[in-house]
Design a protein that fits this description.
The protein is mainly alpha-helical and 92 residues long. The chain has two helices and no strands. 91% of the residues lie in helices and 0% in strands.
Length: 92
């Protein structure tokens, strides 16, 4: 009878390799998919930042051009005010 119990307990051995493979392969695939998704969204954020920086750079260039234009106009106005002041000194 003891031989029958021993044979019955060993009739279904657990195959550890099969369990590891059946669990490990899907985990590796899911891990790769997660890495790909994270990398994709980081890339999209980087692209959005690059677009924002391009707009900021354009805005800065426009501001510098406008500032130079305003300096030129201010120089012309200064010359006119100086001419008017000189005229007023000569008259008065």
């Amino acid at each position: 009878m003891t031989g029958v119990l021993a044979a019955a307990s060993n009739s279904h051995p657990v195959n550890i390799t099969a369990i590891l493979i059946s669990i490990g392969v899907p985990l590796v695939i899911l891990g790769c998919a997660a890495v790909i998704v994270v990398a994709y969204f980081r890339l999209q954020a980087h692209r959005a930042d690059a677009v924002a920086m391009a707009h900021y750079r354009k805005l800065a260039e426009d501001a510098v051009a406008n500032q130079e234009e305003l300096r030129t106009e201010l120089g012309r106005l200064t010359l006119k005010v100086e001419a008017v002041e000189k005229l007023m000194r000569d008259v008065g």
